[in-house]
TrEMBL record:
CDD domains: SpoU-like_TrmJ. GO terms for biological process: tRNA nucleoside ribose methylation. Signal peptide: none annotated. PANTHER family: TRNA (CYTIDINE_URIDINE-2'-O-)-METHYLTRANSFERASE TRMJ (PTHR42786:SF2), TRNA/RRNA METHYLTRANSFERASE (PTHR42786). Catalyzes the formation of 2'O-methylated cytidine (Cm32) or 2'O-methylated uridine (Um32) at position 32 in tRNA. Residues 10-158 form the tRNA/rRNA methyltransferase SpoU type domain. It is found in: Cytoplasm. This is tRNA (cytidine/uridine-2'-O-)-methyltransferase TrmJ. NCBIfam families: rRNA_methyl_1. It comes from Desulfonema ishimotonii. The keyword Transferase applies.
Length: 264
């Protein structure tokens, strides 16, 4: 089964909207987010001219296909799953946030027609209305909980739309293999002993700290290669300085004595 929501099976249901402009704005929000089925229940003083003006030409197809119903029960008859928006919390209600609801609707939407119901602007959905629904969703707000109807429709349509987007697989680079890590640790321990950074009598005590540090970083193969290159350079430089010191010592022993004879 697809891990995306099926927008073709999603409908927005406006129950007793009081303002024709809100119907048009809701249609526009739906069209923006790829949802095309709009059901309007017993609107108050419907003015299709104001609906069309607010919807704009872009959502004219949504407006043209509006299905009108006299009651919410009649409107919801064709749907297998119904989610209702509500601003009221508490009691025994199990209320989901919009993102959670969108995720819950992904499997449901593939085999069922789904309705998302919005109540009238001034008082929302009644308890009787809510009994017709399978689940509740609440749009979290700050101190002022009342949203404009069209704004609420846009928020929910956005969440449903983003649930249709292909889930991006997180980038997973090739991590360093155990063989690569062990080689790096052996090389690092050797050079740290040689430069007297760790106690040669008990090098693993300090190496355990270093291993824990690198383990938290989850080193990639390329990063291990860079670290090993740095270790080689430190080792080369230390060896070079050692050889330079030997050469300088030999040169000093060959300096002539004050009487002009060379040192033995």
């Amino acid at each position: 089964m697809s891990h995306k929501i099926c927008l073709d099976n999603i409908a927005i249901v406006l129950n007793q909207p009081r303002f024709s402009e809100n119907i048009g704005a809701a249609a526009r929000a739906m069209r923006n987010m790829g949802i095309r089925e709009l059901v309007v229940v017993h609107p108050y003083k419907l003015d299709m001219e104001r609906v069309t003006r607010m919807a704009t030409h872009a959502a004219s197809d949504v407006v043209a296909d509006i299905r009108f119903a006299d009651t919410l029960q009649e409107a919801l008859a064709p749907f297998g799953f119904v989610a209702a928006t509500t601003a009221r919390l508490g009691g025994q209600r199990v209320v989901h946030t919009p993102p959670v609801m969108a995720q819950k609707l992904i499997p449901v939407s593939h085999e069922n027609r789904v309705a998302l119901v919005f109540g009238r602007e001034d008082r929302g959905l009644s308890n009787e209305d809510l009994r017709l629904c399978h689940a509740l969703v609440n749009i979290p707000t700050d101190e002022f909980s009342s949203l404009n109807l069209a704004q609420a429709v846009m928020v929910m349509c956005y969440e449903l739309y983003t649930a249709t987007l292909s889930e991006k697989r997180p980038f997973s680079p090739r991590l360093a293999s155990r063989y690569e890590l062990d080689g790096m640790y052996d090389q690092l321990k050797d050079v740290l002993i040689r430069i007297s950074y760790v106690n040669p009598e008990n090098p693993d005590y300090w190496m355990n700290h270093i291993r824990n540090f690198f383990t938290r970083l989850r080193l990639r193969a390329r990063e291990v290669s860079i670290i090993r290159g740095l270790i080689r350079q430190v080792n080369w430089y230390a060896e070079k300085r050692y050889q330079d010191g030997l050469a300088e010592g030999k040169a000093a022993t060959k300096q002539p004595k004050e009487d002009g004879t060379p040192q033995p």
